[in-house]
Amino acid sequence: MKAATFNSFGPASDVLQVIDFEQPQPGAGEVLIRLYASGVNPSDTKKRDGAFPNLLDNGAVIPNSDGAGVIEAVGMGVPHSRIGERVWVYQAQFARLHGTAAQYVAIASERAVALPDNTSFAVGACMGIPAMTAHRCVFADGDVNGQLVLITGGAGRVGHYAIQWAKHAGATVITTASSEESKKQCIEAGADLVVDHTDPQMIAQVLQFTDGAKVDRIIDVEFGANLENSLQLLRVGGVIASYSSTVVPEPVLPFKQMMFMDLTIRMVIVYAMPEQAKKAAIADITDALQKN
């Protein structure tokens, strides 16, 4: 089969090579998938850039955790009825070398999720890290119906799906975006208010919209960089669910202030999500896709 691989770290144009690679075979409990789309996430590019120095110790990597395709073979213990099934894939390149940037991938059957007939492979390849992360951020700490939810970076993929999850669940959704195109995308996704996070009046704009009420939840793309603003906008007993802190990777926490606010800080990454949380996300994703 053909596969994109890298055996050194650096920019994609410098290190990625498309080569002939031995086609995998499904082991016990696995399925073999002919891939038609591969999703690229920030975690994939960070790995290629060298975020995990030991990643290449055991050989070249086929990148990307998310993808979509059709099951062509199954291993022992997997029903033969799965052959021919359209699926989307997640965690293909987690704790293993070979992901979805190839013609085929063999992966545990439970990581290959049925893809509704009305959904393209391209859309299916976007369901893993982005949609599941967003689902966990929005729902891990209970129902958001009737709540005020602030989603930073609403035009990013996780933010895009978080807006939809929260709005569908009955929340009033506030999000941040800077460009006009990004703001438009947030409104189309369902946001009730979009503010520019670079505007000095951003906090005042949010509180004016809420009649002075502070938000119940914050879904945050930049935990460290946004923390000062977050603490001004979050109510006592509120929740910050964050899935990234790239600009300030090791933030200093104002512990006393946060303690007296009785805050919950939740860090989210798909790979470490409890299996029940993954199943809940998959069920809701399937339902949403079927309803288009």
Helix-strand category: alpha/beta
Give the amount of beta strand, in percent. Answer: 15-25%
SS element count, helices: 10
What is the tally of beta strands? 13
CATH superfamily of the largest domain: NAD(P)-binding Rossmann-like Domain
- Helical amount: 25-40%
| Low-confidence runs | none
Please write the string of helix (H) and strand (E) elements: EHEEHEEEEHHEHEHEHEHEHEH
CATH architecture of the largest domain: 3-Layer(aba) Sandwich
CATH class term of the largest domain = Alpha Beta
How would a textbook summarize the main sheet?
A: 6 strands, parallel
What number of domains?
Answer: 2
Shape: globular
End-to-end CA span: 33 Å
* Main β-sheet, spatial strand arrangement: 10-9-8-11-12-13
Q: What is the radius of gyration?
A: 20 Å
Describe what you observe in this structure.
The protein is an alpha/beta fold and 292 residues long. The protein has 2 domains: 2-125, Quinone Oxidoreductase, Chain A, domain 1, CATH 3.90.180.10; 129-272, Rossmann fold, CATH 3.40.50.720. The protein contains 10 helices and 13 strands. It has helices spanning 12-15, 42-49, 121-124, 127-139, 157-168, 180-189, 202-209, 223-233, 255-260, 275-290, and strands spanning 2-5, 17-20, 30-39, 66-74, 86-89, 104-108, 112-114, 148-151, 172-176, 193-195, 215-220, 234-242, 264-267. The protein has a 6-stranded parallel sheet, with helices on both faces. The two termini are 33 Å apart. The model has no long low-confidence stretch (mean pLDDT 97).
